[in-house]
Design brief:
The complex is a heterodimer. By secondary structure, chain A is an alpha/beta fold. Chain A has a single domain, classed as Pyruvate-ferredoxin Oxidoreductase, domain 3 (3-Layer(aba) Sandwich). In chain A, about 35% of the residues lie in helices and about 20% in strands. Chain A has seven helices and six strands, in the order βαβββαβαβαααα. Chain A has a six-stranded mixed sheet with strand order 2-3-1-4-5-6, with helices on both faces. In chain A, helix 2 links the parallel strand 4 and strand 5. By secondary structure, chain B is an alpha/beta fold. Chain B folds into three domains: about 220 residues, Thiamin diphosphate (ThDP)-binding fold, Pyr/PP domains (Rossmann fold), CATH 3.40.50.970; about 120 residues, Rossmann fold (3-Layer(aba) Sandwich), CATH 3.40.50.920; about 180 residues, 3-Layer(aba) Sandwich (Rossmann fold). Chain B contains 19 helices and 22 strands. Chain B has a seven-stranded mixed sheet with strand order 3-2-4-5-7-6-12, sandwiched between helices. Chain B has a six-stranded parallel sheet with strand order 16-15-17-18-22-21, sandwiched between helices. In chain B, strand 2, helix 2 and strand 3 form a beta-alpha-beta unit. The longest helix of chain B has 22 residues. The radius of gyration of chain B is 26 Å and the shape is globular. The mean pLDDT of chain B is about 95. Classes of the chains: A alpha/beta, B alpha/beta. At the A-B interface, helix 1 and strand 2 of A face strand 8, helix 10 and helix 13 of B.
Chain lengths: ~190, ~575
């Protein structure tokens, strides 16, 4: 939380990984908690499998939809190399939760060790989680990895919402047929 | 679509900026909507398409280009309906031919034109076009919302202004407004009233022939003077004076003028700096409330103008300061970039400089970043992979490749990087033709354009290439839908938004009527008949005549969606 009481989240990933789903769940949870919310997202060309960052901010009063440099509280990386694109928004207290999954690029790549080394230049806590593997095994698809990361953040207190609050946000933002898998994904990380 | 958009009663909820535009128009009682999809404006059309289905009080169409959407709206306005037209910035260039005379004739039924700019080109090639320039060119009144609530409120206000002054009104968005989500309070939806549409002949008003057209120009300027008076008094130009202002404080003589999303960055920056200075937030970009600006800058020592892209407000402020405060120090683009969207930290740095506050510099860390470039879909597999594989096999070294606007533009990114030029809708053929004529038979161009782009503005380009005897090979990648902007129907699908099934426009028949030889037009499925695709490129490339390959294969995502729907039914 910055000194003005705004909680700043960045979600980075590759278009198609469900960034928008996370954005909707988190902002609904903040709305339900009676907080002010602003988010920013990208559509179109930027969604076609390319790098995408979305911003979620909530607190008593939020002005800009963009997270200022170095002000993120929590960065969720749905693809591990993408975590590096979150560094601009990080300070030493920022928590990184990183899905151990790699979408290759034709140009540069970085392996987990190199990513860790880069992140450690700025932050103390960069946590790699096998979200894709667990979701693939338990739920039959890694599309739930982001929600898994969210469940983990709630469990560890990296997010000012309890799992139950995220569960009701899931029910409010998604059609009923998707509830079961997403609630399961929240729970998987929660114990 | 967010079903809550149609809730009858007022409520508080989270909406996307574009959804708030839709809700605002519904609250204003909109009756006729036309659009051509373009990010960041696309969701407006998608939502209206769903809302208008089975709704006889609201007509909606995806027109085949923005000029035609504008003209549909002009016709409906002349017939007395409440109209909305939405497009991205470049669409307004296409529509401008009709927009300018529309300001001369004026509207009858109120008409609101929503235009979404994309500073930083998140979803655009082409340019960082700033549609505010149309204030000078077309004289169109322009409102600039900052947040989602204002998207709703300003849309309604735009309808009111248009109704009151009989001029079309523009609501100008940028990506960070159109694709911002925030909490809004809606109002009740009005009872749908009978349309009452009737075209009543009014040759005096709707025929722009000289010498009458000059009178119309004069009438337009007079209307704008009246709107300016309205703007001077209107609360959307908001003056914020610090609550515990000490008139003797140094900060009391420093002010900020801003509008659009920049206003939100200003407020964020002031809070981060822990200071409060007077802020003039403009809701009207055109006409500008010049008296209000003069009053604001008169007592100031320094003013910072915070706006994205070109310094329109800054230049106006410089002019106005000459009248009322020639010694005023005016800052804007001297401290803030003219290229790319603004970020709150940049505004904070500019403000800190002006007030003379030293900022603790953020630690500069040199870190590696890795960017994933957009690419063709892999699950399911996009048919364009096969199109480009075939071209690679068949086209000799030295071929000139012309690109266009649609999913296939992704081939401009690594690793393909195939295109030698890329501009705007339909231009692959137009520019390829110019190259062909310039170089004679010495070099040959292959151009790529999708079905949506062909119907939008590719048709006249191909007709010209045929008429003036070009030798390019134009490949039309027909994936049976306008895909990039989120799957909007086009004439090639045999579907439209309002009626569902309609007769299908056949690309091969259209180009066949342009005077292109029959043997130079081939229709190939690049997936089922990959070898045929390779052979067609080889064969037609070798000819020194205009030729067309229609690479027809349904978008893999659409195919998957259709199968799913079939399984359901």
């Amino acid at each position: 939380m910055d000194k003005n009481g705004t909680f700043n989240i960045i979600v980075v990933g590759v278009g198609g990984q469900g960034l928008m789903t996370l954005l909707k769940i988190i902002s609904q949870a903040a709305f339900d908690a009676g907080l002010d919310v602003k988010t920013s997202e990208l559509h179109g060309l930027s969604q076609r499998g390319g790098s995408v960052s979305v911003y979620i901010r909530f607190g008593e009063k939020v002005f800009s939809p963009l997270v200022p440099q170095g002000q993120a509280d929590l960065i969720l990386a749905l693809e591990q190399q993408e975590s590096l694109n979150g560094l601009y928004f990080a300070n030493k207290k920022t928590v990184f939760l990183i899905n151990q999954q790699e979408t290759p690029t034709m140009a540069q790549t970085a392996d987990k060790a190199e990513i860790e080394q880069e992140l450690k230049k700025v932050v103390r806590r960069a946590i790699f989680l096998p979200a894709s593997n667990v979701c693939q095994k338990e739920l039959g698809s890694d599309v739930f990895s982001g929600v898994y990361l969210l469940g983990y953040a709630a469990k560890k207190g990296f997010l000012p919402f309890k799992r139950e609050e995220l569960e009701s946000a899931v029910r409010e933002t998604m059609p009923e047929k998707y509830w079961e898998s997403n609630l399961k994904a929240l729970e998987l990380a929660g114990h | 679509m967010n079903k809550e958009l149609l809730n009858q009663d007022s409520q508080k909820l989270i909406l996307l900026g574009n959804e708030a535009i839709v809700r605002g128009a519904l609250e204003a009682g909109v009756q006729f909507v036309a659009t051509y999809p373009g990010t960041p404006a696309s969701e407006i059309g998608n939502d209206f398409a769903e809302i208008a289905r089975n709704n006889d009080k609201l007509y909606f169409e995806f027109s085949t280009n923005e000029k035609l959407a504008m003209e549909a709206v002009i016709g409906a306005s002349f017939s007395g309906l409440k109209c909305l037209c939405a497009m991205k910035n470049f669409g307004l260039n296409v529509a401008s031919d009709s927009l300018l005379p529309f300001l001369y004739t004026g509207s009858k039924g109120p008409a609101v034109i929503v235009v979404a700019d994309d500073p930083s080109c998140h979803s655009s090639a082409q340019s960082e076009e700033n549609s505010r320039g149309f204030a000078g060119l077309a004289h169109i009144p322009i409102l600039e919302p900052s947040d989602v609530q204002e998207c709703l409120d300003f849309t309604k206000l735009a309808f009111e202004i248009s109704q009151k002054f009989n001029l079309p009104v523009m609501v100008r968005l940028t990506t960070r407004v159109a694709h911002q989500r925030a909490i809004v309070k809606t109002s009740d939806l009005p009872e749908a009233s009978p349309s009452g549409a009737k075209f009543e002949s009014n040759k005096h008003q709707f025929v722009t022939m000289p010498p009458r057209v000059l009178e119309m120009h004069q009438e337009l300027l007079e209307k704008l003077d009246k709107i300016k008076e309205f703007a001077e008094e209107n609360g959307i130009n908001k003056l914020q004076i610090p609550q515990q202002a000490n008139p003797k404080s140094r900060l009391a003589r420093i002010g900020v003028i801003t509008s659009g999303v920049s206003y939100l960055h200003v407020m964020e920056a002031l809070r981060m700096l822990g200071i409060d200075v007077p802020v003039l937030k403009l809701g009207f970009f055109n006409p500008l409330p010049k008296e209000k600006i003069k009053q604001f800058i008169k007592p100031l020592k320094k003013v910072l103008v915070v706006e994205e892209l070109e310094p329109y407000l800054e230049k106006e402020t410089i002019c106005l300061a000459k009248e009322v405060n020639p010694k005023l120090e005016i800052h804007g683009k001297s401290l803030l970039p003219e290229v790319g969207e603004l970020k709150p930290e940049q505004v904070m740095a500019a403000l800190a400089l002006i007030i003379g506050k030293k900022l603790k510099p953020l630690p500069v860390v040199d870190f590696k970043t890795i960017k994933h470039k957009p690419r063709f879909c892999t699950t399911p597999v996009c048919p364009y992979w096969r199109v480009f594989a075939a071209i690679k096999q068949a086209a000799p070294q030295g071929t000139i490749f012309g690109g266009d606007i649609g999913c296939y533009m992704i081939a401009a990114f690594e690793p393909m990087q195939i295109y030698d030029y890329m501009f705007c809708m339909g231009s692959s053929v137009g520019i390829g033709h110019g190259i062909a004529k310039a170089v004679g038979g010495k070099q040959k161009a292959i151009t790529l354009m999708g079905d949506g782009t062909f119907f939008h503005s590719g048709m006249p380009a191909l007709l010209n290439a045929s008429y003036n005897r070009s030798n390019i090979l134009a490949i039309i990648v027909d994936n049976r839908i306008t895909a990039m902007t989120g799957h909007q129907p086009n004439p090639g699908m045999g579907q439209n938004a309002e009626e569902g099934t309609v007769s299908e426009a056949r690309i091969e028949q259209i180009v066949g009527s342009f005077g292109i030889k029959e043997e130079n037009i081939k229709v190939v499925d690049p997936v089922d008949d990959f070898n045929g695709m390779v052979a067609a490129v080889k064969e037609l490339y070798a000819k020194n005549e205009l030729s067309v390959i229609i690479a027809r294969r349904i978008c893999a995502l659409l195919e998957k969606k259709q199968k799913k729907n079939q399984d359901k039914s």
